Amino acid sequence: MSSRTRIAADFVEAQLSLYPNMKIQRIKTLSTIRWSSHDSAINVVFLKYLDVIETLENLTKSPDTSIAYQVKCLYPNIT
Length: 79
Known about the structure:
Elements: H1 3-18, H2 35-47, H3 49-59, H4 65-78
Helix pairs in contact: 1-3, 3-4
């Protein structure tokens, strides 16, 4: 399983555990050309903040040291 697939699966799992009756959302990729993509990406993080935090906490324990390092650097900035 690729890193992106694992991260997406962790995020979906966090959403299902914290908000079982809400629609599953995916974190969007930012585009430098369209402002609407910025809105979509920010809205997912805003609406699913607790899920993002739970996913990051899970990824800090990842056996993939590259992912774990990146998450450990990002986590203090987002919490």
